[in-house]
Specification:
The structure holds two protein chains of two kinds. In chain A, 20% of the residues lie in helices and 19% in strands. By secondary structure, chain A is of the alpha+beta class. Chain B contains 18 helices and two strands. Chain B has a two-stranded antiparallel sheet. Classes of the chains: A alpha+beta, B mainly alpha.
């Protein structure tokens, strides 16, 4: 067999059909890989949710589930708001300019990180490894927190702290601020979370 | 094709049947090659039982897994209850489930000891590199099995453990968030995630695992087992038979040896199974007896014990640690340029690589590098056959201080494992950073340190004292 002359034409066709087969196999892989993506039902469940914020009093927080994650709506007191610009030096990204974790929507790139200064809307999931931080709204010294604590959130898993705007403090495990989900006001008391297109 | 053999006249019907089969399937040939005429060194010590024990545990896991699948429901609303159903209502279900959960931890204990045996006696050295590589593949599959299997009971630790680990993938630059979405199949760990992990856990990974186990054994039986002396027994053969003088047939000598080991193993296994199935909170974590709640994180999240050394390294990689890595790259690059003896082109290439590495290290988060460190800690094992440059295989003939190096490696691996199971603390963080550096230093500097020192002469034949 080995002393036979190589048939160049036949070999070309074998290589060509082998390549065509590989391309075909590549196309067949597409539906299989795509089936890993969220299904239509989950996409629908990931749709925007409406929240009624009329009953929320200053200093209170409510949680709504969006895409299975807790979304916090916090109505901040004037005292808490006044404190926010003073914290800039202690924060890792006070102006929410970073884009490596989640890009903060342009309407929330300010000290209070929200459309209306009073209402904070953030996803209550730590940017470190996905734990849900707890409320630490009381000011002053307390366990696991600095003595000049001005109110905010503390992640129980690895000790990251966030201010009342969900901005992470420096030298903490969390690489970024809490995510501000796309959101918009349908009216003064009705908030739509998950969408920010102009209606 | 071989000609049809015929059994001698007057042979028993069993012999005739075997001849009939052998003419159609290499039954006797396989049996002889892998059992009756597979010659293994006669000087195996107790460290050599863990390979067959691993196979034994694999059988336990597959068998119990098949029966658990008959009652388990891979549905986010039913999974937790179906596990409790197995524990309370299915006759003997609790036993089968505890065998499976204890088996998972037993698997890792046995496999870690098996791997350490390989490291001590240089079992991965030429010509056994592929045996080691297939083994590392098996270790990776085992980790995947354990991780995905742990989600199935749908407890708090299942849920948040999976959440943390899947989030690790989102730290990969550029494609991370989409990759995490593809793994979860939903925006959070949910029903879709549970279903696909179930599919991977019961079908996909076990199939790959079995293939790798077969490849591991075929490669081993091709080259022959190494031994505590690291002497090639095939080098000294009996002139008449052609078999290694220092080899004994696997069956019956080592089958009996391994059955005895299995019996001893079962004593320990059953003691845990019946008296401490939760393994003091290490084998089954207390938080996992609470159903998964996506809105509430447990106060302390820790993986199961067999992942904690790697989890420690992940947590140790903070911003400061990245600066340490940058320092290492800088010093390494400088040494290579000044002392490496490279030409101008080589120096330029090294400078470019080092500068590139520094830029990349600074450009991405410590979180991403943590993931790289954790993955690298496992992947680096694959390179061991090429990192070890010691002139002798076995630790027995290496300089005394090599034993101390190996001892320190084990101590720090255990310390990392312990720290990974505890909540983070500043002191613990410093120690795990030291441990991480030592772990990588052990492997990455091995090409140098493994050659240093005075080696003892390796004997021609294995050392063996009949007992």
């Amino acid at each position: 067999m080995s002393d036979q002359k190589i048939d160049g034409g036949k070999r070309t066709w074998i290589i060509a059909s082998g390549c065509a087969g590989a391309v075909g196999a590549g196309f067949v892989a597409v539906p299989f890989v795509s089936s890993f993506e969220p299904s239509e039902r989950e996409r629908a469940a990931g749709a925007a949710v409406e929240a009624d914020i009329s009953a929320l009093k200053p200093g209170e927080k409510m949680t709504v589930a969006w895409r299975g994650q807790p979304v916090w709506i916090v109505r901040r007191t004037p005292a808490q708001l006044a404190e926010l610009p003073k914290l800039d030096k202690e924060l890792a990204d006070p102006k929410s300019e970073r884009t490596n974790f989640k890009t903060t929507p342009p309407y929330a790139q300010n000290d209070w990180r929200s459309i209306k200064p009073e209402y904070l809307v953030v996803v209550g999931i730590c940017s470190h490894l996905g734990c849900s931080p707890g409320d630490k709204f009381t000011t002053g010294p307390q366990p696991s927190l600095p003595d000049d604590w001005e109110g905010g959130f503390l992640c129980p898993c690895h000790g990251s702290t966030f201010d009342m705007s969900g901005r992470v403090f420096k030298d903490k495990p969390a690489p970024d601020n809490l995510e501000v989900p796309p959101h918009m006001y349908l009216s003064d008391s009705r908030l739509l979370i998950g969408e920010d297109k102009k209606a | 094709m071989a000609e049809l053999q015929t059994a001698p006249a007057g042979a028993s019907s069993g012999k005739k049947l075997l001849t009939w089969v052998d003419n159609r399937f290499p039954l006797s040939k396989l049996y002889n090659e892998h059992m009756a005429q597979y010659y293994a060194p006669k000087n195996f010590n107790v460290w050599y039982v863990f390979g067959s024990l691993a196979l034994f545990v694999l059988v336990i896991q597959i068998l119990t897994g098949i029966f658990l699948t008959m009652h388990y429901k891979p549905d986010a609303t039913k999974a937790f209850a179906s596990v409790e159903y197995i524990m309370r209502d299915v006759p003997w279900g609790w036993l089968i489930r505890y065998m499976h959960s204890t088996g998972a931890s037993a698997f890792f204990i046995v496999v870690y000891l098996h791997m350490f045996r390989g490291m001590m006696y240089g079992s991965y050295r030429t010509p056994r590199e592929l045996v080691w590589l297939f083994g590392c593949g098996i270790f990776l599959c085992l980790m995947a099995e354990a991780f995905m299997g742990y989600l199935l009971p749908w407890g708090q630790m299942s849920y948040w453990g999976a959440q943390v680990i899947v989030n690790l993938f989102s730290a990969v630059p550029f494609i991370g968030p989409d990759l995490a979405l593809l793994i979860r199949g939903d925006y959070v760990v949910g029903d879709a995630t549970l279903n696909r992990f179930f599919s991977f856990h019961v079908i996909a990974v076990p199939l790959v695992l079995l293939g790798l186990v077969a490849a591991h054994l075929i490669a081993l039986h091709e080259v022959g087992s190494s031994n505590p002396d690291g002497v090639e027994i095939k080098a000294t053969k009996n002139e008449k038979t052609g078999h290694p003088i220092d080899g004994i047939p696997f069956h019956p000598f080592y089958t009996v040896h391994d059955i005895f080991a299995s019996a001893v193993f079962l004593f320990v296994f059953c003691a845990v199974l019946f008296f401490a199935p939760e393994g003091g909170g290490y084998f089954l974590e207390p938080n996992n007896f609470i159903e998964a709640n996506p809105l509430k994180t447990p106060l302390h999240i820790a993986p199961v014990w067999y992942f904690t050394p790697f989890y420690s390294m992940l947590r140790a990689t903070t911003d400061i640690m990245v600066y340490v890595f940058m320092g290492v790259v800088f010093v390494g690059g400088l040494l290579a340029i000044l002392r490496g003896g490279f030409g101008t082109v080589g120096k330029v290439v090294i400078t470019a690589l080092a500068v590139g590495a520094l830029v990349v290290l600074k450009a991405f988060d410590a979180k991403f590098w943590g993931v790289v460190v954790m993955g690298g800690a496992v992947i680096i094992l694959f390179f061991l056959p090429w990192l070890d440059r010691s002139p002798v295989k076995s630790i027995r003939y290496r300089p005394g201080w090599h034993k101390i190096v190996y001892g320190l490696f084990v101590v720090f691996f255990l310390v990392l494992g312990y720290l990974g199971s505890t909540p983070p603390s500043p002191a613990g963080n410093d120690i795990s950073q030291l441990g991480t550096i030592l772990y990588f230093g052990f492997f990455l500097l091995m090409p140098w340190w493994s050659r240093l020192g005075t080696f003892k002469p390796v004997p021609e034949r294995v050392t063996f004292h009949a007992h």
